[in-house]
Amino acid sequence: MRKILVTGVGGFLGGQAAAYFARAGARVVGFTRGDGPSCAEAVRGDVLDADALARAMEGCGAVIHCAAVTPYAKIMADRDAAREIYLDGMRNVLDCMAKTGAHTLLFPSSGKVYGKITPLPYTEDAPLRPDVFMGALKVECERMMGEYAAAHPDASMIAARIFNIYGAGQKRDFLIPKLIANLGNGHMPMGSAGTRRDYVYIGDVLRAFSLLLDRAERGFSAYNIGSGRSVSIEEIRRALCEVSGGSLAFETDPAQVRPEEPQEEYGSIEKIRALGWSPQVSLSEGLKETIKTT
């Protein structure tokens, strides 16, 4: 039986990943500072505590390292704390892998590693020139993974560059759950409703994780995970209203505009398509499922 450590199992992606791999028959160890899903063998601890992390990792062949600060506002409110969790956390994960013999790391990176001067669609071989702080932290984590792979030839280091993930259980710090929460509440403040992003449903992301772990090769590799196209916030608003039968309108709030970010982002998914993966859940279907289980 495959034994997998999932860090950050108390969060949206970590919790969903733990549940998914447990259903698939893996023995899942969930590492978290708080509460984790009931399907995981829960271990309380912090990724900044290397000793606790090593104890949790013992006997695991693979690690899915989801522990992170993800909401934009929280990252910007305390950059030092975000930097510590990302960089010191990754350093501890890699050190513990060397000590325990875990051989495969899957790290949820981000499409934010590319930056607005990169031609669309973003491809994995494009230069990494992030515009935002989280993107810079993800790039540094990937750099550490590459160095680890060079020093440990039997290791598999996988950077899953996920674009805008959504699904049931995601907090209102993120766009789609925030829109759902505001259905029927009148006018919702919004920055630029024309901003376009690549959205991918959680179920498709987890299928990609499974494939990448099954097909892991030695060394460092990076894969985009997204829909392969962009949609605007306005298009999401209209789709939500259509599938829910509810109403939602925007009022412009210049304070919510992020001038450092590009107007449009989306990635090429041809590299992971070549392994046999493609997104199966359309935006409308994903929104329906998210509303149903929210």
Verbal overview:
By secondary structure, this protein is α/β, with parallel strands linked by helices. It has ten helices and 13 strands. It has helices spanning 12-23, 50-57, 72-77, 79-100, 133-151, 175-181, 202-214, 233-244, 270-273, 283-292, and strands at residues 3-7, 27-32, 41-44, 62-65, 104-110, 156-162, 164-166, 187-190, 196-197, 199-201, 219-225, 231-232, 249-252. The protein has a seven-stranded parallel β-sheet, sandwiched between helices. Strands 7-10 form a two-stranded parallel sheet. Strands 8-13 form a two-stranded parallel sheet. The model has no long low-confidence stretch (mean pLDDT 94).
Features:
about 290 residues; alpha/beta; Rossmann fold; 10 helices
Our estimate of the beta-strand percent is 15-25%
Structural class: alpha/beta
The appropriate CATH architecture is: 3-Layer(aba) Sandwich
* CATH top level class name: Alpha Beta
In round numbers, the mean pLDDT is 94
What composes the largest sheet? 7 strands, parallel
Distance between the termini: 33 Å
* CATH topological fold name: Rossmann fold
Query: What's the helical proportion of residues?
Result: 25-40%
Global Rg: 19 Å
The tally of helices reads 10
**SSE order, one letter for each helix or strand:** EHEEHEHHEHEEHEEEHEEHEHH
Give a quick rundown of the structure.
By secondary structure, this protein is α/β, with parallel strands linked by helices. The protein has ten helices and 13 strands. The strands form four sheets. It has a seven-stranded parallel beta sheet with strand order 3-2-1-4-5-6-11, with helices on both faces.
